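User:
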Amino acid sequence: MLDEEQLDDGAGERLRPEVERLLRRVLALRTELGDVAAPAAVTLDEDPLRASFEAAAMAPLGSLDAQRVLELDSPSARLEALERLLSEEAEFLELRLAGS
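Assistant: Predicted structure:
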């Protein structure tokens, strides 16, 4: 019997590259701003299940956001949440970098 993780609708495969790009962008912006960050040369696993957990572990999220992401049932749900959170973080960091 397949569990919910294995029944992902394929959206995870479409979202994984965008989450990887956003994660790299956020980590690079944090480094440019002098914040502590993991190296921006991140490569997520090709498998959306693994990639969703890797991205959640590497993303500079608050503990509550990270917990909410990790509690989601499917890789696509985790990657969708990460895409939203990382997009918001990238916008915030770009504003900081611009001096606004």
